[in-house]
Amino acid sequence: MIPDFLIEKLNKQYGEELTNKILDGYKVKRKVTFRVNTLKTNSYNIEKILNENNILYKKVSFYSDAFLIENVRENEIQKLDIYKNGEIYMQSLSSMLPPIILNPKENIDILDMAAAPGGKTTEIATLVKNKSRITAVEKNKIRAEKLKYNLEKQGATSVYVMEQDARKIDDFFSFDEILLDAPCSGSGTISTENQKLEKIFTKELISNSVKTQKALLKKAVNLLKKGSEMVYSTCSILQEENEDVVETILKSGKVEIIDIDFKGIEDLPKLPTKIKGTLCVMPTEEYEGFFVAKLKKL
Question: Choosing from 147, 235, 255, 292, which is the catalytic residue?
Answer without folding.
Answer: 235
